Amino acid sequence: MFCTSLELEKKRERQIALKQPPRYDKTCLKLSDQEIQKQLDKQVPFIWRMKFESDKSVTIHDLSHGIINFEFKNFSDFPLTRQDGSFTFIFANFVDDLTMKITHVIRGEDHLTNTACQAALYQAFEAPLPVFWHLPIICNVEGKKLSKRDFGFSLRDLKDTGYLPQAINNYLATIGGGTLDNQILTLPELARSFDFNKIHATGQVKYDVEKLKWFNHKWINELNPQELYDQSIEFIKKEFPQTTSIPRDTLTVLLQAIKPNMTTLADAAELLRFYFVRTLIQKETFTSHIDSAFIQQIATVLAESINEVAHPEMYMDKIKELAKINNIPVKVIYTALRLCLTGTLGGPTLATILYILGESESRIRIVYLINEITK
């Protein structure tokens, strides 16, 4: 074909204006041998196209859609080469698959129409067609095609925010059309359990970050202590450079303590913030979370139990006993303790927090709170 891009565009615009399907009109197919040689002698750039016989068709087997028949009369002769002599993706991809004897071609639903071209090439070469599976398009929660503006579009996004490769593989396998439900499976297990005979067809799949978080949380809990340290340490160092002076064994123990509360690896830094930063709660902040009617009782319970703080389990038992005696809900005491020890309302259990901080640091924070709310 010797038509220029400009000529093709003009033809396309005219076809659209006449409400005709925009496709190549086979102009160069009508050239005589002499006309072709004349163009070659002038060194006019050209490309090769695959000729579709309008009275023929090709049939493929698709795992999602079943048997699909493509009538060639509905398709335009497609390019096999570019003007610089290089090959188009469609042709190069076909040659790769053919020479490697690929049996299953798996790709996105949006490439379904391209499959007609590749199937035509298989037919022209009298080669057996592979089985195709056109996967549903991954969309955001609004049902729009996933784009760079959506979180998690790239693997770099996910890696930088602390998602494990195992979790990503597991999640994608679940939403990809198989029937794996919510099973936590390694890559080899996923490969063994995937059943190509149980494929469901759908036009789109919603990329649910919350579900991915669930898988990531489960996979974090599968990591052994050393793996968790290796995977999390850079996130902690980035937030707290002083981490380099803390023994590996100490950090390994700390990470095991917060492990059940981690959704992503990046959570490690925030969950351990109370260890690196002493947050002394001011009265105004405290009363924004605690009913001021309980302040005196809280101070009494904390003061009377302070001598047990070296023994976290005994300390928590004492808190429960004194809460009952002072007629204050124990959950109010727990909230007060969590605020004064960590500056937050979430995180590990109170006993775990006391173990992490140790007797001296725990006492400093509790005494500070007692003094702050009673002044």
Major sheet: order of its strands?
1-4
Mean pLDDT: 86
Q: Look at the helices and sheets and give the structural class.
A: mainly alpha
- Fraction of residues in helices? 40-55%
Q: Major sheet: size, sense and barrel closure? A: 2 strands, antiparallel
Number of discrete helical segments? 17
Listing every helix as H and every strand as E from the N terminus to the C terminus, the arrangement reads HHEEEEHEHEEHHHEHHHHHHHHHH
Quote the beta fraction. 5-15%
Which spans of ≥5 residues are poorly predicted at pLDDT below 50?
none
Count of beta strands: 8
Rg of Cα set: 33 Å
Q: What general form does the structure show?
A: elongated
- Span between termini: 90 Å
